[in-house]
Every structure is written in C-alpha cells, then in structure tokens.
Amino acid sequence: MTVQLHHVTKVFKGERGIFDVNFTLKPGHITALVGSNGAGKSTIINILTNLLHPDNGEIIRESQEVRFMPDDIEFPDTLTAKEIMHFLGNLKKVPVKRQIELLDKVGLWEARNLKVGQFSKGMRQRLNLAQSIMGESQFYILDEPTNGLDPFWIAQLKAMLKEERDNRQIILFSTHLLSLAEEIADQVILIHHGRILASGDIKYLLQEGKCHTLEQLWLQITKQEVER
Amino acid sequence: MSMQMILLECKQLLRSRWIQIVTILFAIVFTAILMIQHLALPETEGFTRQTASLLNILLFLLPLFMLTIGSMNIASDQESGWLGLLRTYPLTMGQYVLTKYIALCIVFAGVVLFVFAVAFLVGSFFGGLKLPLFAIGITALILLIFNAVSILVGTMAKSRLHALAMGLGVWSVISLLFSYMVMAIGTVTSENFLQKLVIATIHFNPLEWIRYGYFVFSEQTAVLGPAFYGMSKFYSSPPGYLFFIIISSLWVIISLVVATIILKIRGKRV
Predict the structure, then answer these.
(1) Phi/psi at A197 (nearest 5 deg)?
(2) Domain check: are A62 and A157 in the same one?
(3) Whether B232 contacts B215, CB under 8 Å
(4) Which residues sit opposite A24 in a β-bridge?
(5) Which one of B26, B152, B207, B261 has the lowest number of neighbouring Cβ atoms within 10 Å?
(6) Which comes out higher in pLDDT, residue B43 or A216?
(7) What is the pLDDT of residues B75-132, one digit of tens each?
(8) DSSP string covering B210-257, please?
(9) Interface test with A, best of B15, B82, B88 (most A CBs within 10 A)
(10) Are strands A67-69 and A187-192 parallel, antiparallel or unpaired?
(11) For residue A203, what is the domain's CATH number?
C-alpha cells in the first residue's frame, strides 16, 4: 500500500494554499514534511486526513482511514485522560487493555483520573500522541508532534516513530525543525509558499545538493527560489 | 453511536460550569417566582395568573439556557479542534449530532427535574406547591425542540463567543422581537391579514408553537378568542393532534438534518 498525491492543488483566499503537489508515501518509511510557517504543511495534512478537499488533483490510496495526531488540539477539559481514551478507543474498537497500555506508554497512567483541564501543555500533547497510536490504520500522520514535548518525550516520540516504521507503517510528520527531520526521517518533502521545492530520500538530496545538512540544503534551495 | 458515547457526553455536560451555574440560577428564579405567586394569589382552577407565570418562566428561561449552552457546546468542539479529530475517527456527522442531541436532552431533563424538586421541597414548607401536569409536557416539548435548534445554531457558529451571540440573538427574536413585530404590523394591516400572520407565526416560531400546544392540550383554547376558533377546533381533534406531533417532529428533524449537512460541508472546507 502506498499513498500518492498527483497534482494536488488547494487555493484559499489571498492566493495562499498549495499548488501542484506530487509525492508518494511508502510503507516502512518515515517522511518529514518540512517548511516554514504558512508554507502549506497543514493544508497537505488536512487533505490527507480528509478534513479538506482539494480543488484539483487526486489522492490514490487503498483506505481512507488514518491515525492522526493534530497540532494544537484542546481536549474536552472536563473529561479525564482515561475517559478520553475510552471514548476515542471505543470509536476505533480498541480494547480497554490497549488503551491503558498506551496511557502508560506516554507516562499518563498516574494522571489518568485527572481532568484534562488540569494538564500541562506537555501532558496534553502526550495524550494526543496516545490517542493517535490507537487503531489499525497503516497510515499515520503527525502534525508538529514535538510541540510542547520536553527532551525526554521527544526522544520517546522518535523511538515510537521508529517502532512504527519497523511495523511497515506509512508515516508522515510535519515539522519546521530540520534537525528532527534529518535525524529520524527517510524521506523529506521541502515545501515553501505552497510549492514543493524538493522531495525524496534525504541522503540522495544531500548528495545532489552537495550539502552536509538539511539546513544547508534548505537555505540553498530557498535562496535559489528567491533569486528566481 | 453507543450508549457509552452518550453517557460520556452527559458527563462532560454535567461537569461544565455553565450547566451548574444555570441549574442554580434556574432553581432560584423558578422557585422564587412560584412561591411569590403561591403566597400572593388565591388558588383557583383553570388558566390563572399562576399558570401563566409558570408557562412564561418555562417558555422564557428554558429556551434561553438551551440555545446558549447547546450552541456553545457544539461550537466549542469545532473551535478546539476536537471535532476535527473526531472526523478522523469512524464517526459520521449524523452520529455526532444525534449523540449530542440525546445527551443535551438527558442533561437538561435532569436539570429541570432537579429544579422542580427544589421548588416542591421549598413549597412544602409553605403549605404545598402544586406543579401542574402540563408543566411536564411543556418542558418535554421545549427540551426536544430547543435542544435541536441549539445544535443547529452551534453548527453555524465559528467560535464559542459567536455561538453565544447567535444563541442570544435567536432567543431574543423568537421570544421578544417576533411578538413586537406582529404587533407593529398589526397597526397598519387589516384584522384578517393580522389573524393569518399570527397563525403563521404560531407555526414558524417554536416558542409560540409550544405555547399554542399548551392551550390545545389543556383544552383552554377559548383563552385565544373567537378569531382562532377554526384553527383551535382542528388542533383539538385527533387529526389535529397528529398534525401537531408531525410539526413538532419536523422542528427537531429539520434542525438536526440541517446541522448534520452543515457539519459535512464545513468539514470539506475547513
């Protein structure tokens, strides 16, 4: 199973959006969607999670189901972490035992009976991570997953993503941290002002651009784009 | 949609500060007004000032609470990104709307029962307070219709504040402006046209519809005067009862269906 985007375009008011986006996501690969704020990362993610319909182009995939970790979500603050996992787990028919395991995995077992309104930003983000792991879908999307996480949990997140990759999942995450993308991703999609500037295997792209780091490559490509 | 989802929605609503504050406020206002009426006026049968007060409290306050809380509840889910997340789960917008509707009905039924219980308890110290049976029927109808309307309002709002403003706007139109508008039009039109306009407003304003329902089912349509004899005669007959149920159901069904459609379309635009 692969996920393919062919000539996908979505334009918002003020000429913002994404234009003629093409890429393929493969199982057993982590793909980083990298770009500055407002580059179009969230638009691509919203299209892939079916929250947005493209104006043009097509998306080829076997299943519409996704596992999704959104950016900046506010969980109902009068419910506890356990209740939220129970509610969402019930929708995906995830056994209670697995829900408990996941709460434990993200370090929220002790805080399971606390209302989410009492959670810190990091705890909310870990709950967000726990809910996103639930389910059977092979397609896993994470929108700025490191936001609000401390270094320990960023390390845990990286380990979890590698574990998902080993399980032949299709993983796409957006970030503006080039170092994170370089560290854990196999493929990268560099997006700027709604257009893909480069995409493919990171090692190959670095070799082609004669760069040592993704940051150098990013600066080189965006500089060329500005000069054009 | 499952029972567990509905229960969790109920839990969420019951823990909300808004619901708690509204329950206390409603209990105080409801009990106080009933007690004042009970102590100040002699007990008589039929449509008295006491009955009118009770009817007005229910028709004035309950829709206000429902329109604001219900709409904010839905708008909050949209604003917080929670609804966006739910869209990535195997949950249809129809199931989401229905779950919300059932939960809102259950919670508000609980609130009203609590308020009635408080009124009874306080009333028992002052020689017993009678709560007419119609109050239960009227309340049930208010709950069923206005929770559906509040969901529709909530889906149209973009934020909690927007939902609050819209909820208050809808409430003021149906509870105040509609009547004043009819009265104003009545000063410049013929009596015949005014009668037709009033009949139309009864059907197109859920608040007036419920009020009219009270007069029909309590067999007090005479209060409305001879101008409404024909209409009241129809609604007091078995086909009229059926028609009343159909129109009441349409308020609920149309509101929920339109709310579902709006959520589906909005989901594609984001």
Answers:
(1) -90, -35
(2) yes
(3) yes
(4) A4
(5) B261
(6) A216
(7) 999 999 999 999 999 999 999 999 999 999 999 999 999 998 998 888 887 766 666 7
(8) HHHHHHHHTT-GGGG-GGGHHHHHHHTSHHHHHHHHHHHHHHHHHHHH
(9) B88
(10) unpaired
(11) 3.40.50.300
Domain tally for chain B?
A: 1
Cβ distance of A78 and B11 shorter than 8 Å:
yes
β-pair type (A187-192, A17-25): unpaired
Domain limits for position A217: 3-66+138-227
In this structure, the answer to whether residues A84 and A115 fall within a common structural domain is yes
How distant is the Cα of B9 from the closest Cα of chain A, in angstroms?
Answer: 9
CA dist B103 and A170 (Å) reads: 37
Question: In 3D, which of B221, B217, B237, B241 has the Cα closest to residue B229?
Answer: B221
What confidence score (pLDDT) does residue B45 get?
60
Last residue of a domain, one of A117, A136, A155: A136
B29-42 as b/e: b if 16+ CB within 10 A: ebbebbbebbeeee
Predicted local distance difference test score (pLDDT) of residue B270: 44
- Backbone φ, ψ for residue A80 (5° rounding): -90, 165
| Average model confidence (pLDDT) across chain B | 88
Alpha-carbon distance B236 to B221, whole Å? 9
Which one of A101, A136, A171 terminates a domain? A136
Confidence (pTM): 0.89
Average pLDDT, chain A: 91
Among partner residues B15, B82, B270, which is closest to A52 by beta-carbon distance? B270
DSSP A93-133: T--HHHHHHHHHHTT-STTTTSBGGG--HHHHHHHHHHHHH
Total length of chain A: 228
* pLDDT tens, residue by residue, A167-197: 999 999 999 888 899 999 999 999 988 999 8
Residues from chain B contacting residue A115 (CB–CB below 8 Å)? 15
**Measured between alpha carbons, how far is B17 from B241 in angstroms, rounded to an integer?**
39
**According to the model, what pLDDT value does residue A38 have?**
83
- The alpha carbon of residue B116 is apart from the nearest alpha carbon of chain A, in Å, by 26
Which range of residues forms the domain containing residue B227? 3-269
Taking 60 as the threshold, does the pLDDT of residue B269 lie above it?
Answer: no
The verdict on a CB contact (< 8 Å) between B2 and A72 is no
What is the Cα–Cα distance from A57 to A15, expressed in whole angstroms?
A: 18
Q: Locate B67 and state its tokens.
A: 């329109």
Sheet strands (E) in chain A: 3-11, 17-25, 29-35, 56-60, 67-69, 139-143, 170-175, 187-192, 195-201
